[in-house]
Amino acid sequence: MAILSDKTALVTGGSRGIGAAIAKRLAADGASVAITYTKGGDAAARVVKEIERAGGRAIAIQADAADADAVKAAVEKTVATFGRLDVLVNNAGTAIPKQFEEATLEELDRVIDINVRGTFVATQAALKHMREGGRIIMIGSCVGERMMTPGLVPYAATKGAVKMFTQGLSREVGSRGITVNNIEPGPIDTDLNPAAGDWAVPQLANTALKRYGHVDDVAAFVAFVAGPEASYITGANLTVDGGTNA
Fold first, then answer.
1. I need a surface site. Which of 42, 153, 226, 231 has the fewest CB within 10 A?
2. Catalytic one among 37, 155, 212, 232?
3. What is this structure's pTM?
């Protein structure tokens, strides 16, 4: 029996990269899955079709993580479609790599709005529907724990905020039987952070394994944390980083 059968999951930013891999893995484990996307409706539709071809249930909802009303509406549409919400994966995120002194206020606002504010809004909306056994899962970053890569100062600060949000919220909702955990990837090979080129050089140098990870490495960990065997794990910051923070 699939470990997430009869469960519903919402994955923000689920049309590509880590988010798409998470959505497909949760569906493979039996969950009905909703994904949000900002742009790229075709990519979101492909994720849904792939899940459906494998016998799963999925929908795609256009919702910019920086748009609070759209995020709240996405949560409500998920519940209206599948009848419940058991797992929220706060995956939507962005980085604008550059030296901090060169960053514009608009760029700083965008990173904060998506990585922090969007996470707050989605989580608050989801908690209205979650029952005992619910899972709130953040996709943070290893740089939210230890910062060694120049050019990611605002991004690292937001992921540090997500870390503390995880720890604090876990104590507020623990009595309801809801767990809150933060999974912190290191260098993962995606369109936004490919395992080639000058930007990859310092990241590879910081890993113990001397290679990038795959999106499925993160998805597998999310699936475990979403499942019944992780019921006593909460308030944790769990790295999937190839030893970057070793």
1. 42
2. 155
3. 0.97
